[in-house]
Amino acid sequence: MTNEVPPGAAEERMRRFSRASVWSLRLVVLATIFTANMPGFEDTPPASPTEGHERVLFLVPAFDITNRENPEPYTAEEKLALSLRMGLDPFMWVSAGVNAALSQRANQFPQYGQGMQGFGRRYGAAMLDTVNGGLASTAFRMALHQDPRFHRLGHGNVMHRMAYALSQEFWTRGDNGTRQFNWSKILGTLSSSALANAYYPPAQRGLGLTMNRFGMNLMWDPTGLLTDEFWPDMQRKLARTLHTRRRHE
User: Fold this and answer.
1) Residue 180 pairs with which residues in a beta bridge?
2) In this predicted structure, what is the pLDDT of residue 40?
3) pLDDT band with cut points at 50, 70 and 90 for residue 50
4) Cα angle value 6/216/96 (rounded, 5°)
5) Which among 23, 193, 212, 246 counts the fewest CB atoms within 10 Å?
6) Per residue in 94-118, is it b (16+ CB within 10 Å) or e — as a string?
7) pLDDT the model gives residue 77
8) Strands 65-66, 150-151: pairing kind
């Protein structure tokens, strides 16, 4: 008697493994922050990367982070340009390729097939996921006049900073500077989850799977907000560690 694997089970396991891998990397960053001598950071001037050119973990584009307390609002054209720049960054193309290769090796979405054709379909789906998510939220930000940027606090108690960063999943700033519920993020995530039904295999479509993708994205995204907030601290910790090692060589 053979045990049949329920449809979609292998794909779900692969998806969870992929998310867990990146989540583990982010948790390593946060664990380093917590175990670091936080008061010692005060001896080092805060990092001030040029806004619009920052990369978290030296690789991941974070062009949507601002360190300014009251930045000028973006125009509709600037919001669209930011979304396209983030979604089409070379790192995203490479990341999509890695995800497609892992997906093909595990035979995720078997309806796509194998070989170059199967890889191309998986690669296209991965890139569409990336671009759709950004553009859908941007469309709502343009319509609702909400700021697309992450506003980094950069100072204060660690727990306060964590709460502040996580709150930006559901709260954002309007173009007029007021605090608003982040409808753009919620509606954009829901829309992109629904749009995936247009290019996912038939077995991965439907209301239930759409809401599952929507919920998973809302649970997953806050880990990125934490690394956005604490990455400068991590950089300073790394710089201090390297400096100390060089002094003792």
Assistant:
1) 172
2) 43
3) low
4) 85
5) 246
6) ebbeebbeebbebebbeebeeeeeb
7) 96
8) parallel
Q: Are 224 and 26 in contact (CB under 8 A)?
A: yes
Instruction: Give the CA distances from residue 3 to residues 6, 15, 196, in Å, rounded to whole numbers and listed in that order.
Output: 9, 22, 30
145 touches 174 (CB < 8 A)? yes
Q: In sequence order, what DSSP letters do the residues of the chain get, joined into one string?
A: ---PPPTTHHHHHHHHHHHHHHHHHHHHHHHHHHHS-GGGGGGSPPP-PPTT--EETTTEE-TTEE--SSPPPPPHHHHHHHHHHHHTSHHHHHHHHHHHHHHHHTT-SGGG-SHHHHHHHHHHHHHHHHHHHHHHHHHHHHHHTB--SEE---SS-HHHHHHHHHHTTTEEEBTTS-EEE-HHHHHHHHHHHHHGGGTS-GGG-SHHHHHHHHHHHHHHHHHHHHHHHHHHHHHHHHHHHHHHHHHT-
Rounded Cα distance, 37 and 237, in Å = 9
